[in-house]
Structure formats: structure tokens, C-alpha cells
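ARCHIVE CARD
SHELF: 3
SLOT: left
DATA:
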Amino acid sequence: MLKRVQKYAMAGKKGTFYWKSLIWFLFTTSIPGLIIGGCIYWFAVGSIEKGVSELHQKQIAERAQNIDDQMSSVELDISHWAFNPRFGSNLKDFNFVYYFKETWDVTKTLFMLQGSHPLIEEVQLFIDRDKPVLFKPEYYELKDNALVSGFERLIEEGRNIYWTNRLPAPASATPPVNAPIVLIHKIPGDSTAPFGVIVVSLKRDKVMNLLKTMTPYNEGLTLLLDKEGRVIVSDDSDEKAISGAIKSEVMRRNEPAGTFLFTSDGVTYSVSYGTMKRISSDWTYISAAPMTSITSPVVAVSNMIITISASGVLLALLLSWLASRRVYSPVERLMKRLSGDKTGAFHPQAVDEFQFLERQWNHLTNESLSLRNRLDEQRSHVRAGFLLQLLQGHLNSYSEHDLKERVKLYGWNVDDHVFHIVHIQLTGYDVLTERFAHGDESLVTFAASNIIEELSAERFEQFSVVNFHDLTVGLLVMSPSDTPVSERLHALGEEITKAVNRIIKMQVTITISGKIGGIRHVPDMFIEVERATGYRKFVNQNQLIDMEHLPTDSGTDEIGYPFALERDVIHAMRNGNREEAERLITLFLEESRSGRGTEIHVQQSMLQLLGSIQHAILQSGTSTRHLFHGENMFAQLSQIREPDKMLHWMKEKVVVPFIEERDAKANSQMKRMVENTVDYIHAHYAEDISLDGCADLVGTSPYTLSKLFKQVTGVNFIDYVTELRIAQAKKLLCETDRKINDIALQVGYQQRYFNRIFKKQVGVTPGQYREQAEA
């Protein structure tokens, strides 16, 4: 006893609350101590056990919910990025080596995703194709068959998103000590035939730290099991036998969640377990905290108080001091926990314990508010992802009630509310070449969406902005059904137009939908809004289209189609007259824009012209697939919203390739025609050869053949025949002893013409040439 007293006396310094409490104990604990001790012994222990158990269950539930929220946040983040256009179907055949800038963008996106949540350790992107590609997060070409097979199994099994404890590894790699915690999401996110996966590995130590928050005391253990009962992660408690026994007891119970007391080796544990609903799997958490370590100080204090009260006043003073020390121990433990000192010691500095606790409590409250604010910031991204899926029709299987419940989770009040869709389209991007580079459409759209969001916040309480990254922005406005908003929407449209004109220097086409009564009708109305946008004037100027005031005959007027210009364009292209064809296409576009000239009418006219040109190309014997490199020309043309860009596209993508292909074919035919003529001359030079006869042979006119022959060989037709015959005559004069008359006939000349032509070409007669050769 004296050693214990000495130990307590030599303990660290106590705060003012401790000494005040000790003084009160000395005055109040003597005779009443016996009564108090008995009451504490018989009644307090049970109450404390019950209160601690309830507090423990509440803490476990809150911290389990926190862990579930963290995991749900990871799942939502991955789902959001999987639907990002950057991970769309174009990655299947994308040349990552040639387009290194886009490859770097993918790597940066994976780095961004990897750093978006503290639980994420590594993000990998695998693309299954002829030459499999792995971003880790940097670009690699996979050649390890074991790795490729592992990733292919991830694509084949499970749903689009699921959890697993397997991670593909090279054949030579050693198995990990602990199974990884991996979240798999197939890409593209909206495809029924995925060709890749996003593999997210969680930090095991971070998950373990989250689990440790479920044990409110230093003692105890925490487990996280999958649906087969395998341990995903635990806090590595030394009590291996106890953890196995508790796990078996939990698995034996039929209830999905509950609480029970478990006793082992004289220690009673309060065990709580429950289920976390995960994608394609249910996880079970188990938390066990010792009850005996909590109630034993109370029992010991009660016994001491009874003994001290019976022994007398002097002994009561000593035991009162010991009791105060015992009563103070929970406060001391809490002080050590909140002090932030690694040694756990509390150093009083002109404040008592409860002032310190209040200060620490305020600090924790501020941290909690900070985390809540960060959560609210992420909520906007989740809202945008939900709204994008809604507008694209991916949520049509949900009922109106289910959609309203989901919307309420994102902080929107939609009861007795109606909806309006505002579609904003930016035009005039081609004139911004000095401010933006080619391919910066997403950057321009991002700036516009920020402007729209700021202006909308000034006029509406509930709205959401969707950035489509293609120079178009969507705005969904929610307003009470009994409040007219038409004038406010028109005023907002004017403000957006002025702001975009002033800041971005682009024109705006705004389309405002009619009133939408239910959430399930939003996707259909969005399709109608996009269709109504096509009735804008096909010019780079600001326009506002209100679907409630569209004329009933819009789109039904007969629009004149310039058939004569279409015929002239095709004729110019067939003749290879590039300048004339480009001039006529310009006239065609201008005539299509005359009159009403809405975007949809101009697009239909240009698409019709493209179809007629492709028909003429096929008639000329040229493959459109080869000429346009397999690209969908109609899809490309239908995406163009500006007349200048459309005209430039028609010239560079259609006219120029066809004329160049035509010229290349014409040059090849001319060369083949001359080669056939030369072959004929070499085979029949001893006969009577004429330009007319050769022209008839190759199927052209003498004038054309003469011109082509001179262009290809460098000499005219007569000179080439003469040089060939003289060369053959020289060979015969040197190598044979035939008569000159016979040699003349053999090379296609009569004797009298042969001597004259030979001397003109060589400078000597045939006889003199033979003599010189023999000498």
C-alpha cells in the first residue's frame, strides 16, 4: 500500500481541478463514505456498464458510418471518373505513342484521381487491345502474359464496378503478405462491352487506422470481413485466439447486426458487429472492447471507500486521497488522449482540466466543420455526375419517386417544384485563334460554365450547371410550381450573353425549354431542347430561342435546295478544277443560308451535298473508305456548328483529297501509256512504226501521245525511234559481218535513207564506222 501511495505521489503534476476535488473528498468522505460505497457497489457498477455499453454502441455506429462514407466516397469518385469522356471508347484504338500530349493528359488524370482521396494508394488503367496498354499511372506497353491475363480476368468477371482482393502481378513476383483491397471499374462506364478497367488499390494502413477508430480504448480489437468471412483487414491485435473466437461467434449468429457480451480468460468484451453495404458485396465489421477495464476502477474505489469508512477518520483521509486519484483517472486518461503529447503527459499552464478539455473540444469541432465543408464541396461534383446521367437518359429505369429521393440526398427540394432546361451553345470559336489553341474547346467551355454558374446563383436558389466540354453547357433550374420564372430566365439569358461576349469574345445561342412537371420527363425535354437549338440562324450572332414561343410551322417551310450549284460542284471536281469547286461550294453554302437559313436546314443541305459528292466519287472508281481513311464524314460534318468552319472542312476534307487522288491516278495512267508505247517500239523497231499507229494502240490521240512521250522520256517520238534504230545498227556493224543493206532492212530503213540518217546521227557512213570499229 505504501508503495502504491508513493507511486501516486511521485506521479506527474496535476491540474487545479484535481487538488480542488481532493479537498472536497477529504471533507465529504468519512461517515457518508460507507453509505456511498455500498450504493456505488450495488447500483453504480451496473448503471455504468449499461451507460458505457450504450455509449460504446453509439460510437461504434457513428464510426462504422464514417468508414462506410469513406468507402462510398471512393466508389462515387471512381464511378464519376469512369463516365468521364477521357475514358471513352476512343481509347480502344488510340495511338498513345503518336499522340503523346493526350497520353500525358490521361496520366495527369490518373494522378489527379490517385490524389483525390486519402485512402487511394495507386490507380491503374488497363486497356485490352492488340497491344495491351497499362497506365500506372504512366504509360506502359504490357508484354508480361501473366499480367495481361490477370487484367483480362478483371474485365470478364463481376459487374461494372466491384471489390476484390486480387491484383494482377507478374509471374515472377512473390505473393504479398496481406491481400490487397482493390476496387475495379470497367471502362467505358456506360458500355456493355468494356475493353478496360480502372484499378484502384487502397492504402492498407489508412484503412487499418480507420478501423482503429472503432475501438474507443487502447484495448480491444477490430476486424473487417468480406461476405465469405475472410479477414479483409484487422488492427493486428496480439489476441489472435480471442479474435478467432469472436469471429466464429459472430458468424454463427443469424442477425446482420447486433451486440453481445463475450467472456474469455476472465475478461468480458462488449462486441458489436454490423454490415456495410458495398457494391457487389457485403462487408461485416466487428469491434470488441473490454468491459472489465472500464468497471474495475469503480469496484476498487467502492471497496476502498467501505474499508476507509470502517477504519476511521484518519484512514478515511488517506483513502479519500486514493479515491480522488481513482475518480480522477478517467479525466487523466482523457487529458492524455487530448494533449497531443507522445508521452501522454498533461502540463497545466494556468488552466484547469475542464478548460483544457473545452479548448480541445472546440478544436475538434472546428476540424469536424472543416471536414463537413470539404464534403459539401465534393457534393457539387456528385450532383453534376447525377445530372449528367439523368440528361443522357441513363436513369430512365428509375421511377419518379426514386429519382426524387435521390435528388433530395443531394440537398435539393423538389416537392411541388417544376423544372426548366436552359441550353447554352457557344459559337465563333474559330476566330479565337490568338487566345486559344486548337483543341482548347474544353477550356473555353469550362470558363463559360463558371460564368453561367455565378450569374445563375444571383437569380435562382436551386439550379445545377452541366459542362458538356464541347462548347455547350446545360442548366437545370428548379422553382416552385406557383412561381413564374419565364421573365427571370430571359433576363438570365441576356446577362449570360453579355458576359460571354465581353469576357470570352464568343457569341451565344440560348434555348429555354418549357415547364417540366416531373424529373422523369427531363431527359425527353433535353432532347427536344437540343433539337430546337438546330432552328437557330446559321450565323455567328447571339440568339435566344424560347420553346414556348416557337412558331408552329418551324421546320415545315419548304426550303429551296440549290440543285444547279450541286451539279456544278460535282462537275468541277470531276474536271480537277479545285479553285472552281471551292468557289461553288462557297456559293452553295451562302444560298443555303439565305432565307430562313436555320442551322438544321443548312446542315441538311450540306449533308445532302456531301452525299452527292460521295456518290460521284464512287462513280469515278475511287473508294470513299480509302479516300477518307475510314472516317465517318457525315458524323464529323453534323458536329460543326459554324459556317466558316463548315466551309473550311468541306474544302480540306472532301475537295482537296479527291482532286489530289484524281491527279495521282491521271499521272499513273499517262506514265503507263508511255511505257506501253516504248515497249512496243523496242519490240517492233524493225517494222514501219508511226505515231498514229502507236496512239491507236494505247487508245489516245497522236497529239496527246506526242506530248506525253516528250514529257516522260525527254525526247520526241521520232528522235527516240531513230536513236534506238541507230544503236541497234551500230551493234550489228560491230558484232556481225552482214551486208550494210541487210542491216538497214533489219533496223527498219532502206539502204539510201539508212546511209544518210546514219551519217547525220554518227558523223560517218556505216562502212566507215565498221572500218573504224575493226581497226
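SLOT: right
DATA:
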Amino acid sequence: MKSTFLLLINISLLFGAKDYFQQDVAYTIEVTLDDSAHTLHANEKIIYTNNSPDTLQFIWFHLWPNAYKNTETAFAKQGERFLSTRFLFSDEEDRGYIDSLDFAVDGVDAKWEFHPEWIDVAKVELPVKLAPGGQTIIETPFFVKLPEVFSRLGHTGKHYEITQWYPKPAVYDHLGWHPMPYLNMGEFYSEFGSFDVKITLPENYRIMATGDLIDGEEEYAWLDSLATEGDSLYSLDKKAFKKAIRELQRGKKKKGKFVRNFIGHFKKDEGDNEEEIKSSSVMKTLHFHQENVHDFAWFADPKWIVRKGTLYLADSTREVTLWSMYYPKNAKLWENSIEYLHDAGYWYSKFSGDYPYNHLTAVDGDLSAGGGMEYPNITVISKRDSKHLLEMVIMHEVGHNWFYGILGSNERDHAWMDEGLNEFCNIRYWDKKYGDNNRRYVINEFTQEKLGPFSIGHNMRFGFMDYMGYTSLVKMGDEEPLETSSNDFKIRSNYWLSYSKSMVYSWHLLHYLGEETIDKIMHNYYEDWKFKHPYPQDYFSYFGKYSDKNLDWYTHDVFYNTGTVDYAASIINNDAVFINYGSLTVPFEAAFYDKKRNEISRQWFENVERVKSVPLPEGTKSIIIDPEGTLPDVNRPNNATYKPLKFTWIFDEPQHYKREIFWMPWLFSWNQFNGWTPGLNFYHGYVPGYNYGIGIQPMWDFKNEQLIGSVKYKRTLYNFWNFNTSTFNMDIARNSGRSGAHMAFEGKRKEHLKRYPVWTGTATIDYHNIEEKAVDPSYYDKWSIAVGFAELKFHNRPNPYLAYHFRTGIKTSIVGSQFMRFNIQTNINYRFTKEIKTKLRIWIGGFIVDDDIPKQYRTYLSGNIDPDFRNNFIYNRTSDMNDISIGTRQYDIGGPSIHGLILEDDKMKGVKDWVISANFDITVPKLPGKPFIDLAVVEGGDSYIDFGLKKSFGPLMIIVPLYQSWEIEDRTFTDRNWLLDRMRFSLSISNFNIQNLF
């Protein structure tokens, strides 16, 4: 029986089909690029046809370049809401706007005004009301000051991405007007029509745009010659290819003067580089025209390599011209770009319907809105790290010609209709093209391919990233329905579910219904709605037409509800028992196997809301739910009743239906006491699809001739004990002369659908059995001890400028001593400008119980000695003194954390008294490091002050004190030796910031 939901859709469409209409907009635009001032001067003429049954008194226009005018626009506010500072801290001269507007309607000056909330939306009053079937001509000049590329429109030097650049009428459909401000997260909805655009710019620019070039024989001849030269690059040997690319990166001065002879000699001109390319003083005007599109974009750059190809559609003789243009620096990566364009156009035409336009183009860009951005006939692609990633983005953006371009849904309110259905076609493409290679997907060519038999992630498949992204998000309990308007998503990551969630469920639906049925649905949806504005109910109606199955789980639950899929299989008394632990009821397939793992049969199960039992097929010894791996189950390990053991090198896409153990040799472990301790690292779980992990790391201590290492277990629960996430950790370890155990619980809680603030509660118990010879007795004097720790942390980031956290904790002895220490810590980070950032840390701590305080738990003024052995970057705890000994040059933050080294009897000073301290550092431009200043006051009156500079190089931070108040003599920097004697360093992953390397 067909679902109630689909029946209601069909009934509503039956009565509403006659009411469909759409407006028509015919644009004529003439524009000139001034590449010295980075501006556009333009005139626009629009013929607007009112095909609605309503009389119009005004027309809303989008003036989206104004989104970049100031920090009060919707674009800027959205960035602020999602904690982005790039545009907020931009300089005035780097922003953009549109002005010089002077609207006239049928030759009569028209009144117009900005939207009361958005300066990038305006209402143009019609001097004469526009009746149904009527037509009016709207004209205006306009001027655009191009911003730097903060999102989609803009320039980087003399590279231009001219998108969303002209005054554009908003859509008027059966729901009325759709005025909307420009957003970075949230795309568009525009009227179909025609574009006739003339672009004037310096003649040395390569330019690609929406539409066909009219009377462009000379331009095409030039581009063809460039394409021939571009193709010839790839016939060169490796050395000549590199030399040719270097020459191209220097640029060229004149049109047509490319590289005279790729194989011959190259003239070296050190003064001619990409940044210094001069524009031609001769201008050219190119005329583009395109019918049946709802947007027009163009891209220009004087440096691109040009490639050209042809696509012949499968079921016709019509040919489509393919163009790709890219920077010389990306020549190797883009080598097969024409192939990617060809295959995307071919397969999307097969999946939905033939590509209707005459060219298909991809250009290399500087996009800030994401990996790529689509426009009719053309897409712009930002930098990618592998050929597969580039192919994926080109394919995805080309696919938007169907889902957004031809099927012109409202992207702002129904993002899944273009992003999700397009992502679904992405995995179909990869399956068709690379199915024989198990849909293999290379994200990083070096680690996945270049290491030969030691490659990591060699068998990663396309689609796994979407599954991983989807399941990781929804398990947190903060999912929002896909049918949410883009700017209404409370959590940014939920917008990205429009991609991943739509894809994983549509991919499962294809497996459930079969390719033939899906093809009928997609082909008919395309044919009926091409060049129109479909809504969700229009898409869903085709499932009722072409399938008699109950698909409410897809057409309603996936898009209008939230929840998770979690099915488990077991065998009880010769019955197969399936249990639904999730909140969604989705059809699933189960496969039955004999004792030799030969498949006996498969069966689909529907409507399993709680528990379902069925007799086992004869000879069944094991069951697997979802043997093809299409079901978006958040907990796949319980889908199989028997899981054979499998060892996998380091990491690969997890095989959840096997007891998979990842392993690697561990050769990087060394400390002063044990020396070099090679071993093996084994782990199971931890990766997406698992809520737990087990790790075993046996190592051999050659120095002391003993087995050392660790065994670890981690379990994560969701929505447990009133926490959003709860994590339990346990480990037993023997290393650095310490044998012991660690148990920890961490629970995090925040308000539903809010990223901040976050409350975190932590409780730990540590037991240590320490060999006396393994540690410096100046810092350790208890060899067998158990301690407990409890902490409450509050973390908030109310805006992009401010982040702060407050934490308070108690550490207490359990066995082997008698003490209790209390501390409070506050961290405040504030960003004043793009380049000026400050950090303030305040710490107060002391002992409530001090009857028997072990040395290792004293309050050390100049950092932490890690008494609980949690820091893997501390390499020498022994009394053998060197530069990596605790209490000397190595700095580990904790307690008062004075950067300079405060000594007492040649050892880092530790106290039993109460201490209050403050640490402040600031990032400012043009300094070789961050200035810092510290202050600590110890109960009883002793105070300590220092200041200096620190700089991070990856995980290594160098600390250079310039003043230390506690020194009796030579408190202040005097010479190089003074600095060398006092320099310290810190090793920590938290220090790592790639920007600090440059």
C-alpha cells in the first residue's frame, strides 16, 4: 500500500498543477572591467514578463555586491554567528559594494529603496502596475567595487571571479516574493530567462563565462592555440615540464606570446613574475548569450593554462565543448581535468537527462566559499590536494548544472534538493567509473599510493567520508531537520548534512528500489521540471508514481525528522533476531551464511520498529545486516553475528563486519630511563562506526631487558547521565620506570542546538608504582601512591573575538600519602584585530590538607612535572641531568606556569603554600615571537615576575626570557650567553599551528 504521505502529495499536486507559473527575465548587460582599480562599470536592461496570476506593484532586486560593504550585512552577521573573523577584520579597501544605481521603468524614473533590514536587497516601485501577462523594461547603470575573494565574488590580484554581480530580480512564485540577502552558507533562487552580456577587458585575459560566445572567431582561435600549447606541456619529459611551468609562472606580456617552444631554450627574466604581469593597453569586447538559465558568471585571469575537449552525449550526436583553465602551479594536478569534465557530463546526462547547453567549463580559482562553486555552464574550483579530490569537486560542481542549474530549486530554503541529490549522483558516478576498483578514493596520494605495500588508507572508498561525517554528527544529538532554511540552522555542521545525510539515505534507497526504478524517477523528474522551480513535494511525488513500496521513511522521515538507524542481529534458538535500537525505521537487507562463510540467501526486512524474529535458513551459522554497506547505521559492529579476525596496516576504511585490528611497528619511543623501546601498536575500534576502542602497545626495553607498554580501553556514550557525551577511559601501563593504572570519566553538557557554552565534568583515579632509580628524588619521594582528581570546566565563546573558560578542581590522595589540593583557573582569549590576539591565564591554588604532600604533587612555579605520567613529551624524569630533564629547560604548562626557570638548590622550585599567578601573552605583527609576561605571588610574600618572547615551530615552542626578577644579579638580558643559559622549550601538539612555520 502506498504511503499516506505520498498520497497526500499526489492529491495536492493534482489540484495544484494548473496553478504553476514562473516569471521570465531577459537580461542585456554591458560591462567593463578596470583591472587597475578592480571595478566594474556597467549598464543593465531587463525585460520582465509577469506570467503570474497577480498584478505586481513592485519588484524586489538583489544587489548582492553590497554584502561586502560593511560588517552589518547578513553575510557579515552570519560569519560572526559562526565565529569567522576573516571578513570582520578586513580592511575597508578590501571590501566591495554596488552603487550608481538609477532605475528607470519603461523610460520613467522609478522610486526605489533598500530593504529595511538588508542593504543588498532593494524594492523598485513600478510606476504602472504590471498586470498578469504584462511585460516591462527596467534599466539601470551600476558600478561595482570588487572585494577581495571573501566568499564568491571578488578578485585576488588580477584574478577575477565575477559572480552574483548584477542587479537581479528576486523570484516571484506561488508562495509570493523571495527576497533574500547574500549569505556564504546558503545559496540562491533566481528566475529563468536569457542573458545577453558584453564584457570589455584587457585583451591578454583568458575569460570563460556562462553562455556561447557570439561572433567570437578571433577569441576562439586564440583559445584554441593556447589549448594546443597547453596539451603539448604533457608530452615533455619531467625536467622540461618543470622548466616550462617555471616559465609560465613568470607570465607573459602580450596576447599570443605564450611559450614559443616548450622543448627549446627558455629566456629567464627574474623581474617578470605572476604578481608583476602588466595588463594589455588594448581592450577587447566579448559577447556572450545563453537561454534557459537563471544566472550569469564570468572568470578572467591572464595566467591560466588552457585545455579543450569534446563530449558526445550517449544517446545523441550533439557535441558539447569542454574547457578547463588553470594556474601553471597546478598543471600536474589538473592534467586530467578534461577527462573529469567529460565523465561528469556523460554520467549526469545518463542519470537524469542530456546536458542542454553547448559548453562545459571548469576554472582554477581562489574560492573562499568552499571547494568549488557552480554557475550555469561553468564552475570555479579552489585548490585540491590530490587528483581524486580535484575530480570529485569538478564532478560535484558540474553536477550542479542539473541540480540547481536546470532543476532550479530554492537552494536557500531546500539546500538538500541541490546539494543532497547532487551528492547522491556523485557516488553513482564514482561507482560507475571506479566500481571495478571498489570505488577507491585517494585523498592523499603520498600516504595512500606512494608508500607501496606500506600505504595507509589504500582501500578507502568514495562515500565513506559522507557516512563518517553524517554518523559522527547525528550521534551527538544535535541534528536539525534537512527541511530547514540555510540561515535558520542553529549549528553550522547541520547545514552540511544537506550533503551527507541526503546522499547516504538516497544511496541506500537505490539499493532498496533498484537502479531501474531510480532511473525512472530521476529521468521523469528531470524531464518534467527542467528549466522550472520544483519544490520538495514535486520531487517526492515521483516515488508514488514509480514505486508501490511504503517510502515514508525516505520522503518524510529523512527530510522532515531527525533520528538515527541502529539495527542489531543475533541468533537465538535457530531464529534470526533483529532489534532496532535506533529511532528511525528503515528497510534493511540481511544476508545469511554457512559455517564456511558462503552466502545462503538474502532477504529485505521492512517496518522493524522494535524486534523481529524469523526462522533461520537451513545451514545458517552467521548473519550480516547490510552486507553491501549502504545502510547509514551509526553502530555497524552489532550488524554481524560472527566477525572473523583481520589485521590491517595502520589504518584503512574500517570493515565493521570483521574483528579488524589495525597495527603498526612502533619505533619512535624513547626516554632516559628505558632508552629506545621499539614495539608494536595494535588497536581495534576508535574509528567512525564504533563507540569504543581498544589499544595494546607492547614494547621491549633493551636497556633494562624487560617488556613494557600499555593496554587501553575507551568507550563513548551519548545522552547518558544527562550528558551529551560521556567518555570512559582506562589504561594499564608500564613505562619510564612507572607501572600503574589510570581510570577517567569525562561528561560534556551543553544546551541543545548550541555550540557554546559547554560544561565538562571530569573524574580520574591514578595509581602509580614508581621505581626509585627511574626518577629524580628531588621531585619524587612517594613510590606507591593512588590519587583522585575531580574538575568542573566551563567553556564559552560568545562571539568571534572572545573565548574564555573557567575550571576548578580538587586533587586528593587515596593511598600512600595525605593531601588535598584545590585550584581555580581562568583563561581569557581576546582578538582585537586580524593580527593582534591576547591570552590571559589566571591560576590560584593551594593545599586544603597538607599532612603528607609528596614532592611530585607540590606546586611547581615554573611549570608542571607531570606527576601522573600523562604527557608523552616528557623524556627524562631521572636524576641524569641534561637539557630534556624535568625541572630544567623543558617547560610543561601547569600550575603557576612561569615561563622563566625559578630554581631552589639547583632544582625547579616547588612550594606547599598557596599561590596566585597570571600569565599574559600577545600576538602582534612584525615581532619575531609573542611577548609574554608572568606574575606569581606565593603565600608569605615572595613574588616573581618575568617577561620575554616565545615562538612556536610546529609542536616545538622556544621560550626566551628577557627579564627575571628573582635573579640576584643579571636579572635582565645582557648578551647572547645570558639568553642561551635561560632559554627553554616546550613540546606539545597544542603548540602546533601551521601558520607559525612561516
